[in-house]
Design brief:
single chain, Lipocalin, 11 helices, globular, Beta-lactamase, eight-stranded antiparallel barrel
C-alpha cells in the first residue's frame, strides 16, 4: 500500500487513509481497491489498498482493473453529446427515431434522449431477467411506463436504449465508438469498453457476501462474485487507478485533458445543466458539510456541498463498487474503485471522507477523524423500538440491552450484536433475527395478517439473477411488503406492495412508480412464484 506522489499540503493524509481503509477491509465486505486524488493537472495521490485476490493473498496493484458500473453512464452521455455537437442527433429526438421497434406503451413517443439521459423517462429501474440490451429493451413492451418528463426515477433500461441508439445513428457499436471517440483522446489505453471472460486476469477479483440470503454483518465471509460479460451502455467500463484519475481531470477541465479537447466545453456544460428534479441518494456519514442539493444531469449528479459545485456518480456491479466526486469549485477530484459488491455503501462514504480530508489538508486545518467503520451502535443511542422477523416468520418486538458499551438485541433468551448500516437500516447477528433487517418503529403493529390472500403470497423467493437474488414478502397487518437482504439492484428499504389489479402489486407506496410484482401460480394455498418486472422468482425451501 505505497502511495503515489503527494504534495506537501497532503502530508499525513496517506497514513490516515491507510488506517481507514484497513478498518474498512476488516469490518466491511470490501476486500480492496484504489483511491485516487487529482487536481486539474495531475494525480496528487494514488493509494491501492487491500487484496485483489483474497484466496491468493494478492494485494491490489496499480495495474488492476475494476468495473465501474453506472459511472459508465457518464461516458454514454459524452458520446451522445458529441453526436449532438456533430449534428447527428438532437437531445429532443424520440428514441423511436433511432429504434423504431421500441414499444413501451402509449407514451413511447415521449421517450426523448434527454429524458433517458437524466432519468425522467418513467421507465422501470431494471429488467434483470435478460442478459443483453436488445432483449431487455424489447421486453419493455410488457412493462408499465410512468408519465415521462415529470420525476427522476433511475433507469438502467433507459441507458440500454441510448447505447443502441448511438449504434443505430453511427453504424458502430457503442463500445467501439467509446474507445475511438473518448478513450483514445483521453489516453486511457488500458481501460476496457467491454468486459469479457478473456479479461478476467486483468481485473481484481470481484466479491460478494457468501451468505446472500441475509443482511451482511461484520465477520461474515465474502466469496468470488458471479462473473458476467458486459457491453451494455449502462455499465460496460473497467478502469485502473490511472484511468480513473484521467476521468476526474476531464470533469475538472471542462472537457479537456492535457490541453486537448476530448468533448466540447458546451457538451460538458449540458451534462451539468439539463437537470432532473432530483438525483441519486446521498450516503454521507463523514460528519462534514452536508449535501444541500443533489440533482441528476446527463449522466452525472450535480451537488451543492458547502457552497462547492460537485459532480458525482456511483457505480455498482456484481462484485465491484465505485464512486467519483469532482469538486469543480476547488479543482479537486476524488475517485474510489473497489472489488466490493455493488451494494456496498462504504465506497461512497470513503470517497466523501477523502474529499473532506483533502479539503482540510489544503486549508491547513487538522485532518478529520474517520467515520466509525464497523457501525456497531453505542449504548447511548436513543431509539424507541426495534422489531424484526423470526425464523418462523413471526414479527417480534426485540429488547435492547448493553454489553461493553454497545447496544445489543435480546430475544428468546439469546443476545445478538446490533449494527446501524450506512443507509440507515439495522441488522443483527442474533441467530433468530438474522434473515432480515430490523425495523425501527415508533409504535407496534399487528404481527401478521390472517387474510388468506395475503398469507398465500408471504414467504421467501429467489431467482438466478445475481443482481437481486433474494426477496421476501411479509405481511404487516393487512399490508404486504417486499424486503430484500441485499443485492446490487435490490431496494435499500422495505417496499410496500400496493394492489393495482387482481394478482398484481405496485412496488412502492408512491402511485407514480412503474415497478410491478405479479403473482404466479397458486398451489396448495401458496404462490409458488412471482414476477418482478419480468424477472421470475420461485418460492424456495429456505426460511
Amino acid at each position: 500500500m505505497t502511495p503515489g506522489p503527494v504534495d506537501d499540503q497532503l502530508s499525513g493524509l496517506a497514513e490516515l487513509l491507510r488506517d481507514f481503509t484497513d478498518a474498512l477491509t476488516r469490518t466491511q465486505p470490501m476486500p480492496g481497491g484504489v483511491i485516487v486524488v487529482t487536481d486539474r493537472d495531475s494525480v496528487l495521490l494514488e493509494l491501492p489498498f487491500g487484496l485483489a485476490d483474497v484466496a491468493a493473498g494478492t494485494p491490489v496493484g496499480p495495474g488492476h482493473l475494476f468495473e465501474i458500473g453506472s459511472i459508465s453512464k457518464l461516458f454514454t452521455s459524452l458520446l451522445v453529446n458529441q453526436l449532438v455537437d456533430e449534428g447527428v442527433m438532437t437531445l429532443d429526438d424520440p428514441i423511436t427515431r433511432w429504434l423504431p421497434w421500441v414499444d413501451a406503451g402509449p407514451r413511447t413517443a415521449e421517450l426523448t434522449l434527454v429524458r433517458l439521459l437524466n432519468h425522467t423517462s418513467g421507465l422501470v429501474t431494471n429488467a434483470d431477467a435478460l442478459t443483453d440490451e436488445a432483449a431487455q429493451v424489447w421486453s419493455m413492451r410488457d412493462r408499465v411506463l410512468a408519465e415521462p418528463g415529470i420525476r427522476f426515477h433511475y433507469s438502467n433500461v433507459g441507458y440500454l436504449m441510448l447505447g443502441l441508439a448511438v449504434a443505430a445513428a453511427t453504424g458502430q457499436s457503442s463500445p467501439d465508438l467509446l474507445a475511438h471517440k473518448v478513450f483514445e483522446p483521453m489516453g486511457m489505453a488500458t481501460a476496457q469498453t467491454t468486459v469479457r471472460s478473456t479479461d478476467r486476469e486483468q481485473l481484481a477479483t470481484g466479491y460478494a457476501p457468501t451468505y446472500d440470503d441475509r443482511p451482511w454483518v461484520p465477520g461474515d465471509p465474502v466469496a468470488p462474485a458471479t462473473w458476467l460479460d458486459v457491453a451494455a451502455a449502462d455499465g460496460n467500463v473497467a478502469v485502473n487507478g490511472a484511468d480513473l484519475g484521467r476521468l476526474l481531470r476531464l470533469l475538472l477541465g471542462d472537457g479537456s485533458l492535457d490541453g486537448r479537447a476530448v468533448v466540447s466545453e458546451q457538451a460538458l456544460a449540458r451534462t451539468r445543466t439539463l437537470l432532473a428534479p432530483a438525483g441519486e441518494d446521498v450516503i454521507d456519514a463523514t460528519g462534514g458539510t452536508p449535501v444541500s442539493d443533489s440533482r441528476y444531469g446527463l449522466g452525472i449528479n450535480v451537488e451543492q456541498v458547502g457552497g462547492h459545485e460537485c459532480v458525482t456518480h456511483g457505480g455498482g456491479m456484481v462484485g465491484y463498487a465505485s464512486f467519483v466526486l469532482a469538486d469543480r469549485t476547488d479543482g479537486l477530484g476524488v475517485g474510489v474503485i473497489t472489488n466490493a459488491n455493488g451494494d456496498c455503501l462504504a465506497v461512497q462514504v470513503l470517497a466523501r471522507f477523502v474529499h473532506r480530508a483533502v479539503l482540510a489538508a489544503r486549508a491547513g486545518a487538522g485532518l478529520p477523524t474517520a467515520p466509525q467503520a464497523d457501525r456497531q451502535v453505542p449504548a447511548d443511542t436513543p431509539w424507541p423500538r426495534l422489531s424484526g422477523t423470526s425464523l418462523d416468520g413471526r414479527r417480534v418486538d426485540v429488547e435492547l440491552g448493553e454489553v461493553d458499551g454497545r447496544l445489543v438485541v435480546r430475544n428468546g433468551g439469546q443476545t445478538g450484536r446490533l449494527w446501524h448500516g450506512w443507509e440507515g437500516r439495522w441488522s443483527t447477528d442474533h441467530p433468530d433475527l438474522r434473515l432480515q433487517h430490523l425495523d425501527d418503529t415508533a409504535s407496534p403493529e399487528p404481527a401478521v395478517s390472517t387474510a388468506t390472500e395475503l398469507l398465500a403470497a408471504t414467504g421467501h423467493y429467489r431467482s438466478y439473477s445475481p443482481w437481486f437474488v433474494h426477496l421476501r414478502i411479509v405481511a404487516r397487518g393487512d399490508r404486504l411488503f417486499l424486503t430484500a437482504p441485499g443485492g446490487v439492484e435490490a431496494p435499500g428499504e422495505d417496499q410496500e406492495l400496493v394492489p393495482v389489479a387482481p394478482g398484481q402489486w405496485r412496488i412502492g407506496a408512491d402511485p407514480w412508480l412503474p415497478e410491478r410484482l405479479v403473482a404466479g401460480p397458486l398451489v396448495s394455498g401458496q404462490l409458488i412464484s412471482v414476477e418482478r418486472d419480468g424477472c421470475v422468482y420461485s418460492r424456495t425451501f429456505t426460511p
